[in-house]
Amino acid sequence: EVQLVESGEGLVQPGSSMKLSCVASGFTFSNYGMNWIRQAPKKGLEWIALIYYDSSSKYYADSVKGRFTISRDNSKNTLYLEMNSLRSEDTAMYYCAKQGYGGFFDYWGQGVMVTVSS
Amino acid sequence: DIQMTQSPASLSASLGETVSIECLASEDIYSYLAWYQQKPGKSPQLLIYAANRLQDGVPSRFSGSGSGTQYSLKISGMQPEDEGDYFCLQGSKFPPTFGGGTKLELK
User: Which end of chain B is more exposed for a tag (fewer CB within 10 A), N or C?
Assistant: First the structure.
């Protein structure tokens, strides 16, 4: 059974940093691209970052480019999202999601809440 | 970015009723379209991918259709467990973008 378990939830002040983790199991993690997707309260979903299976390529949404960094450790089956210069508009539930057929997201974690507020 | 316009924003259906949800893309997405269901407090679950391919384990009452810029999700016979939010995702052009969502309730 595919499982994705995020951690790193919390409340931080604007301008600060935070790092999320996502531990994967039930599939060969090193064979798949992985994504971070967020959902602000009462808002829609926004894709924010993709990393290829071998970390050879990384892509970001314009809203987080230059502030967020996606990375992975295939030896630990773990995906990361380092978030710097956090803003109130980054407040959201953050999900990690596995890349499936055609680039769609076929499995998602349960999500972690990031709140940016003074 | 490709804009995905989803309708309706909400709807209410009776038990056994057939329900349709639409997504309109701002340009041709060549069937690179997926549908998800999200229940309160849960993560999204993939229902349909490539416009009309049913994800493993998803009940056959769910179906997808469409091409070009217009796509739809049909639930043939509303069940209580089908209550939730539904949204579409286009994967044709980077960045992937989502529809605004449809809240489906049992009447």
Answer: C
